[in-house]
């Protein structure tokens, strides 16, 4: 349930506005197109997790099966994507709560980040249990929105999904892919999951199915209630749509649901972020002190503290949702592509594994799925250029800084070995 709890979160509250702005009612087509590569990535992650469940898997798999340099690049870029995700979440939380109560934004943002990282500091099992509870509450609210909204929705209000044109629809895919990010999150805490070789693949399958069904229903209902133009102009598109069937109840219901979704997603993002830094420190790429485990809570407490500091610094990033979502999604697509390459390599050389995957997929099938995943990741990254080119410059700049660090670290390591 952890993967579903991560994917079913704040994205539906934040992505409808920029997606409607870019693709209009074609966002429904973009949702379907975004789901297709996510099925490929889900298959790759489930197969790899059934063979090598390990904390920080998105770093460890490329490091082991491609090269240490590939693992570093993926993990370094994920620092940027995780910080960007936490910035989006914190700001959207302040925006939604500000609609219900007058509260200063920055103290609220700082308090939410602090609370989430404290929760992760004291243990993954506490965080995972909270994730499941919050997910069930959110699904109930979204079901209420769809159930009350469908009788008021109209296909005429939606319009013609293909009228926006193929370029606009494809530009919306990298934004709508945000709806599915996190389905694989359980692999990042593989060493902390019971019966990981069974439960992680099962959780990934459940996550992709639940996410696709729930988000497609919510997006179609919102479009049918107010249309793409209204969604594109609103700072709170789901609230705008919910006012049609729920009236005055829309504000407390949607603001409450948004708060649940945001806190839930912040919780999972902080968890995954800290484990990626922990994995890199354990491998010797980052200072070894970050790999320390708390004697009482069993968590990588120093890595968690560093993640908290980076998240607070990330509040200096620009507020544009299109910019921030692409800054999050570009590194994520590179991560998915790298793990897909890992599947290709293992399919060709099964002796790289200590034991065969518990998911008995034919190696040839996994090789095909892996290559399709690589192509899909590259295509999604390229499609986002139509929406905003600035995040690509940010990613390149951050990567250049990482390469500088990697070069200095490699030279120091080489000198120490003599």
Q: Overview of this structure, please?
A:
With 418 residues, this protein is mainly alpha-helical. The protein has a single domain (2-417), classed as Up-down Bundle (Amino acid/polyamine transporter I). The chain has helices spanning 2-7, 11-14, 16-23, 27-49, 57-65, 68-100, 105-121, 124-149, 155-158, 166-176, 196-233, 237-246, 250-282, 301-313, 321-348, 363-383, 390-417. α4 (27-49) packs across α10 and α8 (124-149) runs antiparallel to α13 (250-282). The termini are far apart.
Strand content: under 5%
The top-level CATH class is: Mainly Alpha
- The secondary-structure element order is HHHHHHHHHHHHHHHHH
What do we call the CATH homologous superfamily? Amino acid/polyamine transporter I
Briefly note the CATH topology name.
Answer: Amino acid/polyamine transporter I
Q: Given the structure, what is the number of helices?
A: 17
Helix percent band: over 70%
Q: What is the strand tally? A: 0
Main sheet attributes: strand count, strand direction, barrel closure: none
Structural class: mainly alpha
The structural domain count equals 1
Could you list the spans in which at least 5 consecutive residues all have pLDDT below 50?
1-5
Mean pLDDT: 83
Q: How does the overall form come out from the CA principal axes?
A: globular
Rg, Cα atoms, Å: 21 Å
Q: What is the CATH architecture assignment? A: Up-down Bundle
Q: In angstroms, what separates the terminal alpha carbons?
A: 48 Å
């Amino acid at each position: 349930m952890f993967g579903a709890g991560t994917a079913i979160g704040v994205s539906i509250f934040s992505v409808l506005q920029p997606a409607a702005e870019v693709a209009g009612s074609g966002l429904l087509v973009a949702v379907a197109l975004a789901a297709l590569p996510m099925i490929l990535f889900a298959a790759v992650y489930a197969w790899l997790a059934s063979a090598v469940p390990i904390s920080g898997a998105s770093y460890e798999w490329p490091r082991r099966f491609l090269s240490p340099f590939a693992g570093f690049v993926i993990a370094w870029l994920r620092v940027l994507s995780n910080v960007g995700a936490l910035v989006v979440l914190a700001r959207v939380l302040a925006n939604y709560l500000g609609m219900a109560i007058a509260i200063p934004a920055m103290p609220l943002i700082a308090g939410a980040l602090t609370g989430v990282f404290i929760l992760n500091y004291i243990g993954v099992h506490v965080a995972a249990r909270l994730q499941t509870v919050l997910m069930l509450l959110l699904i109930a609210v979204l079901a209420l929105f769809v159930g009350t909204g469908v009788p008021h929705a109209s296909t005429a209000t939606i319009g013609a999904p293909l009228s926006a044109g193929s370029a606009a629809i494809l530009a919306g895919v990298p934004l709508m892919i945000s709806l599915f990010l996190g389905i694989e999150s359980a692999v990042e805490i593989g060493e902390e999951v019971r019966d990981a070789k069974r439960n992680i693949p099962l959780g990934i399958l459940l996550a992709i199915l639940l996410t696709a069904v729930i988000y497609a229903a919510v997006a179609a209902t919102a479009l049918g209630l107010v249309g793409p133009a209204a969604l594109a102009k609103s700072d709170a598109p789901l609230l705008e749509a919910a006012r049609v069937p729920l009236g005055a109840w829309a504000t407390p219901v949607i603001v409450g649901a948004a708060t649940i979704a945001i806190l839930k997603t912040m919780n999972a993002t902080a968890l995954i972020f800290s484990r990626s830094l922990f994995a890199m420190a354990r491998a010797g790429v980052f200072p070894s002190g970050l790999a320390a485990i708390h004697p009482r809570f069993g968590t990588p407490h120093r890595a968690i503290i560093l993640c908290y500091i980076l998240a607070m610094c990330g509040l200096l990033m620009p507020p544009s949702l299109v910019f921030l979502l692409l800054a999050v999604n570009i590194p994520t697509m590179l991560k998915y592509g790298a793990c897909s390459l890992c599947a290709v390599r293992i399919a060709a050389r099964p002796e790289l594994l200590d034991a065969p995957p518990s998911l008995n997929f034919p190696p040839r099938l996994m090789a095909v799925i892996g290559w399709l995943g690589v192509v899909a990741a590259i295509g999604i990254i390229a499609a986002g250029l139509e929406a905003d080119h600035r995040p690509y410059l940010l990613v390149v700049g951050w990567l250049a800084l990482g390469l500088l660090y990697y070069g200095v670290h490699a030279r120091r390591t080489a000198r120490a070995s003599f």
